[in-house]
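[recover] target loaded
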């Protein structure tokens, strides 16, 4: 089977100790063909690429420069040019006014992006697939995504993006972020430090918009930080304790720590005293209803847009969707898919001065069925796909590469890539809660799994059979072999012994074990294909059946699965899990109940409710959960890779495994990354990873279609 798969031996161990954090007038081509130059001369800059630097020294950050830095290095003054169709695209963005010259649309210091292989050309449509409106969409979202920072393609070096630069104080309690003068939202309004402060202070910190409080990943040891706009281009984050991983969080998180105050503020009473009146006049019942019509009651970027919620209402207002800083702007959103066009105010240019993105449009189609998805991929109908294609899809995809004119590579995965299972220890059914809450049951289930066979049958031998360790062992240096292999051996005899000890016997002679009260024990496993290979779930059910446990499988949509999980209605939860060092450095969510966010594998929902309500509701968590909370808080105060960080990280893994809340299967399996052959400047991915946000490190704005 291994001969079917072309693997890429390109990922070195991403040790936390090697994490690198480096800190410390434009022109226009108009519709008539007019060009001007930053500084007024008519010279242009060399076509520098990663493949051919043309003798130009590298900048402070890899594969990019600020404008002045590049002009000094290259000895040139840059001439800028826009996408020839940008005025047409601007006309499709609801509410946008006529475009000013490009020199007025770019920041004073645009981000100069060095293309990988070639200087590209504008045009084309990137066609992609997602499962549904909020299912499997983060892959294409990562293509247009921006944040203050990003990880470079080595997945170790953090570089600015929306930010121009940043610096820490000596003890990692004050982070100063410098923005780009003249940066503009997609509607042409100024983007300033006030938009960052608004996001934190007025949105996350508002009890009406966030009734459960600020999300934990944006807290510091459970306490809020202070966010202050010092001037238009300087924002200061003051933390109650050290959190060096905050920059990493702002490099990998799907949430963007800025919102358009000039637009959303019209519906926010802390910004505009007429917010309630404005909302009523726009046809909403309250200010927060108007606010969330655009914001979506969530920091997840792909919540249903106004165009999907109520297109007629959206189009009757001043603007159908709220302005963004992303590379592409939404113009159409239906139950079948959505379309986006290039942002005319985007802040990046290539080394010859062409405004990015090169690719003019994104066409996202919703295809929930794996078979239909693979057919479209095999036919070459898709430009790029990474998310929700698994090892089991490799043979059919590689078989059709030549005919479909595409390339699919088996790329190592890191972070949230191991499919794990978690029995509901807070089940509403007290009988099942007693069974699943018994550690012996979870140990039995773990040792009933034949991970070596899973690796061969599902992943073609390209993964590593292992136990769940919370941290991805490929991104930290402290996970031991003993921890990787903890209760991960295939031992059905021991599994049977443990289940017998519990009193789970076949009371009625039907061949399956019964509950402690003698009634049938049926374990329902609902799964979504986005969360892992179907073949793996089938094997999981078979292994448990081999030790007398009746597991019933049912495939559901991702939306159905997540809703049931959030409502605590599942017997056993399953999704990809395990986290990179960068993720855990920035967020405690994987280590405190419910051990993840809405979109990930969670458990312990009643423990989370108890903590959230100070004991008024829910169930009191066991001592190991309280200890894990304290250790995860302390862990974030250390710099990754230090002896203190590694020692504490190892203790955290021991705690996580002491209760075996999450049962691992196979870690870091190689999985497909697909791209059509006419997509240029598409690099070899160092790793396929949601934790680093799919395509975001690989600079999709410089991809182009030949």
């Amino acid at each position: 089977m291994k001969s079917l798969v072309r693997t890429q031996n390109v990922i070195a161990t991403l040790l936390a100790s090697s994490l690198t954090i480096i800190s410390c007038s434009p022109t226009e081509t108009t519709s008539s063909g007019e060009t001007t130059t930053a500084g007024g001369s008519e010279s242009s800059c060399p076509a520098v690429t990663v493949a051919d630097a043309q003798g130009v020294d590298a900048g402070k950050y890899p594969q990019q420069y600020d404008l002045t830095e590049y002009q000094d290095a290259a000895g040139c003054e840059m001439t800028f040019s826009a996408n020839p169709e940008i005025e047409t695209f601007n006309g499709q963005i609801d509410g946008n006014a006529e475009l000013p010259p490009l020199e007025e649309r770019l920041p004073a210091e645009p981000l100069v992006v060095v293309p990988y292989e070639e200087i590209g050309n504008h045009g084309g449509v990137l066609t992609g697939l997602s499962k549904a409106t909020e299912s499997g969409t983060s892959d294409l979202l990562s293509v247009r995504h921006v944040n203050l920072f990003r990880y470079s393609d080595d997945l170790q070096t953090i570089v600015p993006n929306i930010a121009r630069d940043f610096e820490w104080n000596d003890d990692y309690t004050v982070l100063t972020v410098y923005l780009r003068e003249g940066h503009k939202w997609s509607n042409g309004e100024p983007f300033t430090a006030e938009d960052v402060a608004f996001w934190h202070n007025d949105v996350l910190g508002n009890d009406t918009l966030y009734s459960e409080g600020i999300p934990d990943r944006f807290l510091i040891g459970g306490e809020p930080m202070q966010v202050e706009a010092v001037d238009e281009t300087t924002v200061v984050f003051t933390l109650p304790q050290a959190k060096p991983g905050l920059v990493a969080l702002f490099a990998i998180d799907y949430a963007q720590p800025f919102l358009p105050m000039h637009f959303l503020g019209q519906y926010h009473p802390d910004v505009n005293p007429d917010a309630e009146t404005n909302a009523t006049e726009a046809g909403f019942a309250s200010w927060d209803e108007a606010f969330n019509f655009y914001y979506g009651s969530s920091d997840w970027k792909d919540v249903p847009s106004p165009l999907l919620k109520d297109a007629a209402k959206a189009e009757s207002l001043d603007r159908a969707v709220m302005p963004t800083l992303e590379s592409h702007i939404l113009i159409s959103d239906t139950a079948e898919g959505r379309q986006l066009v290039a942002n005319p105010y985007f802040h990046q240019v290539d080394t010859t001065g062409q405004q990015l993105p090169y690719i003019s449009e994104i066409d996202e189609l919703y295809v929930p069925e794996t078979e239909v998805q693979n057919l479209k991929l095999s036919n070459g109908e898709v430009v790029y796909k990474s998310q929700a294609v698994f090892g089991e899809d490799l043979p059919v995809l590689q078989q059709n590469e030549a005919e479909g004119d595409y390339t699919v590579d088996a790329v190592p995965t890191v972070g949230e890539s191991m499919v794990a299972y978690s029995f509901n220890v807070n089940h509403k059914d007290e009988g099942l809660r007693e069974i699943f809450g018994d550690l012996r049951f979870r140990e039995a289930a773990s040792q009933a799994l034949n991970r070596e066979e899973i690796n061969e049958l599902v992943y073609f031998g390209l993964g590593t059979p292992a136990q769940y360790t919370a941290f991805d062992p490929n991104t930290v240096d402290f996970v031991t072999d003993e921890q990787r292999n903890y209760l991960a051996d295939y031992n059905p005899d021991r599994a049977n012994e443990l289940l017998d000890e519990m009193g789970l016997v076949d009371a009625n002679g039907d061949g399956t074990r019964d509950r402690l009260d003698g009634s049938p024990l049926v374990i329902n496993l609902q799964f979504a294909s986005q969360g892992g290979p179907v073949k793996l779930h089938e094997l999981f059910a078979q292994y448990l059946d081999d030790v007398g446990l009746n597991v019933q499988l049912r495939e559901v949509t991702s939306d159905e699965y997540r809703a049931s999980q959030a409502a605590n209605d599942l017997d056993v939860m399953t999704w990809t899990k395990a986290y990179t060092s960068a993720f855990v450095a920035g967020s405690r969510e994987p280590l405190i109940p419910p051990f993840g966010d809405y979109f990930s594998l969670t458990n312990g929902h009643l423990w989370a409710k108890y903590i959230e309500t100070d004991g008024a509701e829910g169930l009191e968590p066991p001592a190991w959960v309280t200890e894990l909370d304290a250790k995860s808080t302390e862990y974030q105060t250390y710099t990754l890779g230090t002896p203190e960080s590694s020692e504490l990280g190892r203790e955290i893994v021991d705690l996580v495994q002491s209760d075996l809340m999450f049962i691992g299967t196979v870690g870091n399996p190689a999985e497909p990354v697909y791209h059509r052959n006419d997509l240029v400047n598409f690099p070899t991915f160092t790793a396929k990873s949601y934790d680093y946000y799919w395509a975001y490190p690989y600079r999709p704005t410089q991809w182009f279609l030949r």
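[recover] notes: DSSP finds 25 helices and 27 strands in the chain.
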